[in-house]
Design goal:
eight-stranded antiparallel β-sheet; globular; binds guanosine-5'-triphosphate; protein biosynthesis; translation elongation factor activity; G_TR_CS; guanosine tetraphosphate binding; Elongation factor 4
Length: about 600
């Protein structure tokens, strides 16, 4: 296809503003799939994505569109992940296309991820076409939202397209705008050595790793031996094709085109997003700029509830890692929890998705320990250690100082909740960087320690704003602070899985809260159980669980034998969800719930 008849684009939007629905309509209207094959949200392929309504892996589809000028255009839509955790993948996918449809829900307006994603698109030099969605709803205020787009984002929204992705209203205008308002791909040279951007990859049980590429220069052909410039791998290409959205083989891909290749690549790890693909011989000399592999920032322990499930957990984790290069793991042993894995994630959502998949797809009951960030421990001898697990905190006498990661968080919230949001940020050691207004919404920008955010910040934010706040963040750097390791002792023994790093000023408060929570969460035993929070050897908070005086069955006075048996059965079932620790049984839920702050 000639370059001038190609349009490569993405759709940027806040979660739930209708990105997937619009993509489905575009596919449907161009007859790319037969009506009977049309499933809701074609692009979200994984079940979990569909259930949670989030798009995780970038996907792509090639659409053929006969435009009003009588020409048939090839439109390549790259679907980008919508969530903060995958910001790097979003920014890479954006480099593969020249334009974006900016979808904003006309009943909601601009949200935090609208901003984050549109700025990424602007950084990638995209032409942007604003689209106001959901105008079928009575609450839609397209005028106001168009004004807001101009005020907050600073792009012209006077010719924003008004649509309803649900009813199909306005979709033909969107197709026409893609052709007339978005630019064709930048000039590439077919005669130059192959240079292609690795946009995404995923593992397919039949084909092995499928790699999505955008060709910059040269031509990719079946039988080529390709080289990944950063990871160094060399592979013979056995298949080239495009997604329509089902895979369709083609003979070659030239400049400006987007498609996939397979090359008997065994693991997704060998195909890093952002890498440059070239040929083994006579390849290009300089790779595309700006490659950085995504690094995990949040760590937690995953342990099987039933120790007999360890081997199953290992198999499941290995399989998952095949398809997820940003997920890391290593074996970990905990005195409290036995054998498990210390796992690294791009963020909290990523953590939740992985945990859900392990539990649901692989049927393993898991204990998740408190998420932790990476601390930099500066030792007195000058060495700098990365601490992924509070349990590994070195002896303080050798430690000079500790640094923690900070983030820049952007929160958009209706005025009426602003006070609560500011208080929440303040409570979490935040420092205000900016506070501005856009209509009846406020935008607060805060510098916050990541460790105050990883656990329940997002839940708290949602609850204090009744779900009306939106949130986005990026890591901004490391800063020294007065951080200490706090241990929890149950029945006078430290439980490693409950150790956390906290700011010294917040230690008493956190310690008290954890002891109180554990007092509720750990059932009574035949003896009394002290629960203590300690820093070094010093106890800073304490609670006691009173001893159980009577046998539970004593409650069933009289001889109701069935009731008595039921009660005992219930107790036995409950036991399975417990972990024996010393003489004390700790319920599985306690490990994570102990940390939640009200
Ligand atoms: P993520 O995949 O989570 O990023 O969300 P999304 O932006 O892809 O949103 P999605 O297409 O899943 O739409 C979110 C919800 O809005 C769904 O329940 C849609 O049915 C609904 N929706 C989308 N477009 C319209 C519209 O034009 N009108 C109405 N009334 N509802 C819509």
């Amino acid at each position: 296809t000639e370059l001038r008849y190609i349009r490569n684009f993405s759709i940027v939007a806040h979660i739930d503003h209708g990105k997937s629905t619009l993509a489905d309509r575009l596919i449907q209207l161009t007859g790319t799939v037969a009506e009977r094959d049309m499933k809701e949200q074609l692009l979200d392929s994984m079940d979990i994505e569909r259930e949670r309504g989030i798009t995780i892996k970038a996907n792509t589809v090639r659409i053929e569109y006969p435009a009003k000028d009588g020409q048939i255009y090839v439109l390549n839509l790259i679907d980008t992940p919508g969530h903060v955790d995958f910001a790097y993948e979003v920014s890479r996918s954006m480099r593969a296309v020249e334009g974006s449809l900016l979808v904003v829900d006309a009943t909601q307006g601009v949200e935090a991820q609208t901003l984050a994603n549109v700025y990424t698109a602007i950084e990638a030099d995209h032409e942007i076409v604003p689209v106001l969605n959901k105008i079928d709803l009575p609450a839609a205020e397209p005028e106001r939202v168009a004004e807001q787009i101009e005020d907050v984002i600073g792009i012209d929204a006077s010719n924003a397209i008004r649509i309803s992705a649900k009813t199909g209203l306005g979709i033909p205008d969107v197709l026409e705008a893609i052709v007339t308002r978005l630019p064709p791909p930048h000039e590439g040279d077919r005669t130059k050595p192959l240079k292609a951007l690795l946009v995404d990859s995923y593992y397919d049980a039949y084909l092995g790793v499928v790699v999505l590429v955008r060709i910059i220069d040269g031509v990719l052909k079946k039988g080529d031996r390709i080289r990944m410039m950063k990871t160094g791998g060399i592979y013979p290409v056995d298949r080239i094709g495009v997604f329509r959205p089902a895979m369709q083989n083609v003979d070659e891909l030239g400049p400006g085109e987007i498609g996939f290749l397979t090359a008997s690549i065994k693991q997704v790890r060998d195909t890093r997003v952002g890498d440059t693909v070239t040929t083994e011989k006579k390849g290009c000399e300089t790779p595309l700029p700006g490659f950085k592999p995504s690094q995990p920032v949040v760590f937690c322990g995953l342990f099987p509830v039933d120790t007999n499930d360890f081997d199953d957990l290992r198999d499941a984790i290995e399989k998952l890692a095949l398809n997820d290069a940003s997920f890391t793991y290593e074996m970990e042993t905990s005195a409290a929890l036995g054998f498990g894995f210390r796992c690294g994630f791009l963020g909290l959502l990523h953590l939740e998705v992985v945990r859900d998949r392990l539990e649901r797809e692989y049927g393993i009951d898991l204990i998740t320990t408190a998420p932790s960030v990476i601390y930099k421990i500066h030792m007195k001898d000058g060495e700098v250690r990365e601490l992924h697990n509070p349990a590994d905190m070195p002896d303080l006498t050798y430690v000079d100082h500790i640094q923690e990661p900070r983030i820049k968080a952007t929160i958009l919230v209706p005025d009426e909740f602003l006070g609560d949001v500011l208080k929440l940020c303040q409570d979490r050691r935040g420092e205000q960087l900016d506070l501005t207004y856009a209509g009846s919404r406020a935008m607060a920008v805060y510098d916050l320690p990541l460790n105050e955010v990883v656990f329940d910040f997002y839940d708290r934010l949602k609850s204090v704003t009744k779900g009306y706040a939106s949130f986005d963040y990026q890591i901004s750097g490391y800063r020294e602070d007065y951080l200490v390791k706090m241990q929890i002792l149950v029945n006078d023994e430290p439980v490693d899985a409950l150790s956390v790093m906290v700011h010294r000023d917040r230690a008493e408060m956190r310690g008290r809260a954890m002891c109180e929570k554990l007092k509720e969460l750990i059932p009574r035993h035949m003896f009394k159980i002290p629960i203590q929070a300690a820093i070094g050897g010093r106890v800073i908070a304490r609670e006691t669980i009173a001893a159980l005086r009577k046998d539970v069955t004593a409650k069933c006075y009289g001889g109701d034998a069935t009731r008595k048996r039921k009660l005992l059965d219930k107790q036995k079932a409950g036991k399975k969800k417990m972990r024996q620790f010393g003489k004390v049984e700790i319920p599985q839920q306690a490990f994570i719930n102990a940390l939640k702050m009200d």
